[in-house]
Amino acid sequence: MPLLRSLLAALCLSSLLGVACAQKPVPYDNNPAAGKFYDINGFKMYTEVYGSGPPVLMIHGNNGDMSAFAKNVSYFASHYTVILADSRSQGKSVDLNHPLNFEMMADDYAALLDAMHIESADVIGWSDGGINALLLAMRHPEKVKKLASTGANLWPAADAFAPGVWTDFTKEYEAGLHKTYTTAKEKNDRKLFLLDWNEPHIALAQLSAIKAPSLIICGDHDLIPVSHTDAIYRNIPHAELWVVPNSGHATLIEHADEFNRKVDEFFTQPFKDYKSAN
What we know:
Structural class: alpha/beta
Largest sheet: 8 strands, mixed
Oligomer: single chain
Low-confidence stretches: 1-21
Strand order of the largest sheet: 1-2-4-3-5-6-7-8
Number of helices: 10
Shape: globular
Distance between the termini: 65 Å
Strand content: 15-25%
């Protein structure tokens, strides 16, 4: 093995052989060259920005961070300004002492765009980030040009999830009732779990407030059933539905190339409003 490593190192360094070493992946959520904190609604929101062009905001899921978009950023950064941000109480956006709900997070992202002097942006949201994308378009319609929401749910109940998912949630909730949370991380993790246990509470009729053209996405084996995603699509005035075959919840990772092309096309091409035409 030492000999093999030496040979690989020699090949990587050798320009005579015309072999180029693969560049190290960008350390999203840990890149001082791109990172910046903004004072947003009582906490410091961590951001990284890549590329140039029209702005696109990417919003990650529960108990995650911006690195969720590692397979998407470089594609979009070639012709967009990609704005990554860790949601409140997640990643580097530490916020231990405040309550948490989806409306707060949607307002955070609107405030972030204001702080960055961005009038409006295209928005990509995954899972809880997909919920945030919908609420951002509902509460701050002027901030959203178009949105792509994948794997979002509207309420916390069994019918909003694939069979068995809510049962597992219930077991985790009940087990947590008997635990003592001592460290900051334990307390914050419980807060994030309870966010999805208690929320969101979005009625189908409320989706009519979304005026932005919306690409509503799920995998055919998603944590969110196709029927629930279809209901979201049907209740947004100007929307397109994309059910991705052979995909689970992480469509933007499992089918990254297809996801990137499809969402990019949706953002850049004129919206064809087939629902209104029918």
